[in-house]
Model the fold of this input.
Amino acid sequence: MASVISAAGSCVELIDVRRTYRTAAGEVSVLDGVSASFDAGTFTAVMGPSGSGKSTLLHCAAGLDQVTSGDVRIGGVSIVGMPDRQLTRLRQETIGFVFQAFHLIPALTVRQNAELPLQLAGRPAPAAEVDKVLNAAGLAGLARHRPAALSCGDKQRVAIARALLMTRPGIVFADEPTGALDLAASRGVLNLLRRLVDESGITLVMVTQDPKVASRADRTLFLADGRIVAEAGQLGTATVAEHLVALQTAV
Done:
């Protein structure tokens, strides 16, 4: 069986993706012809003003939301129109999710919270693999603790461990995972994610509003009005902030 923290060699590609929603006021376009690819073993930050389509891009790329038109490919396989059962299995085996809310079960230990999605999916969780992931996430000494005894940073580490166990990833999509954390906890979680990309080869796509977070990425995509308006390689914190201010001023 493959290591739980080894890369699956997958990548994600969006091709001319559009996502519109019907409202009482008419049709609203959230993504307007977005094309982007995320190579295996890379860390991409996605930034932009509020309402620019960042989270929708993440959800469409992960198969959590259906595109209106265009194509989304994971590992070279189109997921547009894929039957629900097949798409669910693909997500379970390839994609991990980390969000700002931790979604931990208070009555369960760290270990049990990390294992729970696997159990619900009817998949085995070998003790050695669970130990490896908990150790990678810096949780080896907290395995028997319950969420109430954890710091916010440690709770997010549990969410990351859960994503790694679920997918033996592949790909991790993260939506503002450091947004609710203080500076020290944010730095610790970001260091962990950066290390997992560098050492374990996961593909990380992260929505963030924090220039310090984006400065740790291999590249940054900037969205405005549902379109990618700029793309840059690794940038310093000040440069990322300048790009973001420019976009917010233009909106």
In short: The two ends are 49 Å apart (CA to CA). The mean pLDDT is 86.
